[in-house]
Design a protein that fits this description.
alpha+beta, Catalase HpII,  Chain A, domain 1, 10-stranded antiparallel beta sheet, iron, Hemocyanin, N-terminal domain, oxidoreductase, hydrogen peroxide, Catalase_sf, 6-stranded parallel beta sheet, 18 helices
Length: 682
């Protein structure tokens, strides 16, 4: 290296040295150097009051976080969307004056975006993660956005901690891995030192963290909102989306393999379902509480780390959403859509949930950087179906051409228009909640129980679901390098369940907890996916077919499956026609190289008398892998040999037979069950 080059490099290093900062061991300050006394709680009007706009520390922290990623979303970057319509079943006039919830004859257009949370836009879709479930209703009163997740609770109680959560969850900054995964030190260090995350973590470690598809997962508004009727009476409300097909999940080994076989698995499933006319449907449910009942529970209803057990507060089903049209352009629609929980209509209002209060600031702030300025509402996918008029002008991306000389309020030159509208004429008026209290950075004592509902969730799980949760903790913490962090998490979850903590402590070589446990014995059957709807509709069945198959009988089975809404796809050792014994022929959709058992809900081994060695090897692997993932397996004719070879024929969910009608009926019933966990318990 030349002396001149060394001098230049040394000069550059000296120049950069002033920008290198080691934060470890330092005191926390704002970007202006002001020392911060509290970083856990936003500034509120009383412990349970609303967040105050004057909280400069919260706004600086959240603004910086909102603007960290260009151009993709900071979180929920990996998403897919579809258009549809919503119809209410009966008027909700008793509870809310929102017009789209009044008339069953009215169909309201919607746009729904599903997403993972942690990964980048190019990450796989079957990773263990929460899933976003955001719905934009294009109502005659303006756009209403219900922005939620597939899990009814969240990691944190106050929005000021959101940047910390996501920083810990994202790839570690010194090496930028792992991608789209929580199985690393910083995430679990955050969990262990922010124990309000316990409830959300156990949900994420459950089967809910790896849903079978967007069409087969629940959605939740997470926060407590308000319904307000035309008499001014308010009810607290929580929103639920209930999938008509039921809530179903993958198994972990399967999810990992799908990530390699088809990282677009969930979006492909959504696209193909709509393209085939198998429109995904979700029923909208609400949990309602009178204001008089706000304090009757052993948890705070404003705490986003808590749910309202459905056995205590039943879900009232009020309408149905049908997704019936794919997007025309992913960027223009899916990527440019801008959701915001503050986009409400008359009859829907907010609570003082401190996580919700922070989101009301953060979402608009995020769109300003991601979509290039304040006119993101003018992009086609974001435009309301009703007209909009105000005195906002100019800015990046402006599309509206406003006429006239007046752009301010009040005015006389345009007769003081655009004019405000009274509540009676449909103007939005905030619910007049009494608010009083000292300005404090604090948390109500009613928010301090972090473990009881995590225990409730654990108690509600079936034995197979508990085994999956233990395995998930064992995997995730097995990837953590810090023994201290591992032990902290063991000790933390001993407060949830000694059984759970002891089990995964043994798997990762940590010291099992000697004390802990919970006095909570209550369970909520609604939380177990084993109690969900079980239907065969739209399930995909891989049909293993070789030359010389029994033509008429196999055709009869396939027709019986299709009649139940099941989608069979032919798999063979090569593409082209597969010939039956009666001169019939079926076209192979896939080969053993281009397909995998993990991409199907069930396997039908039909066989064939003229199978090649390559076919036999491929088919045998398909069947054995599907068996290990607890999937339904049906076999007739030559296909039964693979069951016998693998000693599978007498196992739950494995159907074999010669009687076509009887076999098809039993196989459909097995497919409806989704998985046959009894194999796991044998």
């Amino acid at each position: 290296m030349s002396d001149e080059r060394k001098i230049n490099e040394n000069s550059k290093n000296e120049q950069l040295e002033q920008f290198r900062v080691d934060d470890e061991g330092q005191k926390l300050t704002t970007n202006q150097g002001l020392k911060v006394s509290e970083d856990e709680f936003s500034l509120k009007a009383g412990e349970r009051g609303p967040t105050l706009m004057e909280d400069f520390h919260f706004r600086e922290k959240m603004t910086h976080f909102d603007h960290e990623r260009i151009p993709e979303r900071v979180v929920h970057a990996r998403g897919y969307a579809a258009h549809g319509e919503f119809e209410v079943y009966e008027s909700m006039k008793e509870y809310t004056k929102a017009k789209f919830l009044q008339d069953p004859a009215v169909k309201t257009p919607v746009f729904v975006r599903f997403s993972t949370v942690a990964g980048s836009r190019g990450s796989a879709e079957t990773v263990r993660d929460a899933r976003g479930f955001a719905t934009k209703f294009y109502t005659e009163e303006g756009n209403y956005d219900l922005v939620g997740n597939n899990i009814p609770v969240f990691f944190i109680q106050d929005a000021i901690k959101f940047p910390d959560l996501v920083h810990a969850l994202k790839p570690e900054p010194h090496n930028e891995f792992p991608q789209a995964a929580s199985a690393h030190d910083t995430f679990w260090d955050f969990v262990a030192n922010n124990q309000e995350a316990a409830h959300m973590v156990i949900w994420t470690m459950s089967d809910r963290g790896i849903p079978r598809s967007f069409r087969m997962m629940e959605g939740f508004g997470v926060h407590t909102f308000r319904f307000v009727n035309d008499q001014g009476k308010a009810h607290f409300v929580k929103f639920h989306w209930k999938p008509v097909l039921g809530a179903h999940s993958l198994v972990w080994d399967e999810a990992q393999k799908i990530a390699g076989k088809d990282p677009d698995f969930n979006r492909r499933d959504l696209w193909e379902s709509i393209d085939n006319g198998d429109y995904p449907k979700f029923e909208l449910g609400v949990q309602l509480l009178t204001e008089e009942d706000e304090f009757k529970f052993d948890f705070d209803i404003l705490d986003s780390t808590k749910l309202w057990p459905e056995e205590d507060v039943p879900v009232k089903i009020i309408g149905k959403m049908t997704l019936n049209r794919n997007v025309d352009n992913v960027f223009a629609e899916t990527e440019q859509v801008a959701f915001h929980p503050g986009h409400v209509v008359p009859g829907i209002d907010f609570s003082n949930d401190p996580l919700l209060q922070g989101r009301l600031f953060s979402y608009t702030d995020t769109q300003l950087i991601r979509l290039g300025g304040p006119n993101f509402h003018e992009l086609p996918v974001n435009r309301p179906v009703c007209p909009f008029h105000n005195n906002q002008r100019d800015g990046y991306g402006r599309q509206t051409i406003n006429r006239g000389q007046v752009n301010y309020h009040n005015n006389s030159l345009a007769a003081n228009t655009p004019a405000t509208v009274s509540e009676a004429e449909g103007g939005y008026v905030h619910y007049q909640e009494k608010v009083e209290g000292r300005k404090v950075r604090s948390r109500s004592e009613s928010f301090k129980d972090h473990f009881s509902q995590a225990t409730l969730f654990w108690n509600s799980m079936s034995k197979p679901e508990k085994e999956h949760i233990i395995d998930a903790f064992s995997f995730e913490l097995g990837k953590v390098k810090s023994k201290s962090v591992q032990q902290q998490v063991v000790d933390m979850f001993a407060n949830v369940s000694l059984e759970l903590a002891t089990a995964f402590a043994g798997a990762i070589g940590a010291v099992p907890p000697k004390e802990g446990g919970s006095e909570v014995t209550k369970a909520s059957p609604a939380l177990s996916q084993l109690n969900t709807k079980k239907k065969p509709d739209t399930r995909k069945v891989g049909v293993l077919l070789g030359n010389g198959f029994n033509g008429s009988e196999v055709q009869s089975v396939l027709e019986a499956l299709k009649a139940k809404g099941i989608q069979p796809e032919i798999i063979s050792d090569k593409l082209g026609k597969v010939k039956g014994t009666d001169g019939s022929a079926l076209e192979a959709d896939h080969t053993f190289l281009t397909a995998s058992s993990v991409l199907f809900d069930a396997i039908y081994a039909a066989g064939g008398s003229g199978e090649s060695k390559k076919f036999l090897q491929g088919a045998a692997y398909f069947v054995s892998e599907a068996f290990s993932h607890y999937k339904p397996i049906g076999a007739t004719h030559e296909g039964k040999q693979w069951l016998e070879a693998g000693n599978m024929e007498n196992s739950p969910g494995v159907i074999k037979g010669e009687d076509v009608n009887g076999f098809a009926e039993e196989f459909v019933e097995a497919i409806s069950a989704h998985r046959h966990w009894d194999r796991q318990l044998v």
